[in-house]
């Protein structure tokens, strides 16, 4: 139990998110906007070769402080469950594959749309930071820790919700959520094939974490 309670990746990431959120409340609105824009993975920054934004953008949340302090504990539930089930290294790999992979795919799609004049050029400078792409990949990867008879239900439910967000709101963020979820499901499938996430019964701690993580995912997809 003590080993299961030590979750270095979850604690470190949640701590950094909280510290950055608190720090941003201490600067003026104009400074906060400048910081967020500088860390954004928008086409303007990527075109200038600021590829560090692919990492920095994962440590900022565009929502207000009150929302952050609601979202972060729910995110912590999701990350803690994943880390308890398949370890810190796989959690970090899954999160950043989802975050960077979905961001890159969305950026290519936006570039094509802007060059084809399907979207205005102003979209190249929008704020684009947050944890949702990486988190949705983790949601998808959790298929590996579920009993076989529940895997299809889990995958189909989240794919339906994510695709519904794309069809209803038509934003590139919704597309990114869908792509990140697909990447996570692919990672989960590899884990199943390689048997790297042994199946264990869900006790009450994991059930609570799963519920909190599911609420977080719903808020990201429907928010």
From TrEMBL:
Keywords recorded for this protein, A-Z: Membrane, Transmembrane, Transmembrane helix
Coiled-coil residue spans: none
Cellular component aspect of the GO annotation: membrane
SUPFAM superfamilies: Rhomboid-like
Annotated localization: Membrane
Membrane topology listed for this record: Multi-pass membrane protein
Residue ranges crossing the lipid bilayer per the database entry: 57-82, 94-114, 129-145, 152-169, 175-192
Chief location: membrane
Protein name, UniProt field: Rhomboid family intramembrane serine protease
Naturally occurring in which organism (per UniProt): Nocardia yunnanensis
Lineage, top ranks: Bacteria, Bacillati, Actinomycetota, Actinomycetes, Mycobacteriales
């Amino acid at each position: 139990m003590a080993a299961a309670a030590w979750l270095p990746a979850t604690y470190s990431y949640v701590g950094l998110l909280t510290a950055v959120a608190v720090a941003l409340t201490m600067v003026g609105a104009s400074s906060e906007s400048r910081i967020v824009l500088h860390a954004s993975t928008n086409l303007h920054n990527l075109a200038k070769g600021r590829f560090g934004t692919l990492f920095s953008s994962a440590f900022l949340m565009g929502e207000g402080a009150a929302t952050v302090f609601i979202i972060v504990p729910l995110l912590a539930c999701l990350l803690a469950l994943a880390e308890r089930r398949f370890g810190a290294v796989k959690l970090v790999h899954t999160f950043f594959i989802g975050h960077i992979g979905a961001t890159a795919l969305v950026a290519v799609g936006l570039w094509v749309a802007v060059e084809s004049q399907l979207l205005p050029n102003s979209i190249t400078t929008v704020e684009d930071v947050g944890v949702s792409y990486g988190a949705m990949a983790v949601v998808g990867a959790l298929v590996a820790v579920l009993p076989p008879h529940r895997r299809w239900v889990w995958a189909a439910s989240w794919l339906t919700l994510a695709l519904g967000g794309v069809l209803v709101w038509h934003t590139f963020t919704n597309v990114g959520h869908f792509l990140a979820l697909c990447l996570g499901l692919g990672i989960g499938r590899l884990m199943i094939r390689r048997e790297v996430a042994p199946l264990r019964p869900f006790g009450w701690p994991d059930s609570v974490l799963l519920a909190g993580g599911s609420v977080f995912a719903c808020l990201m997809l429907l928010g």
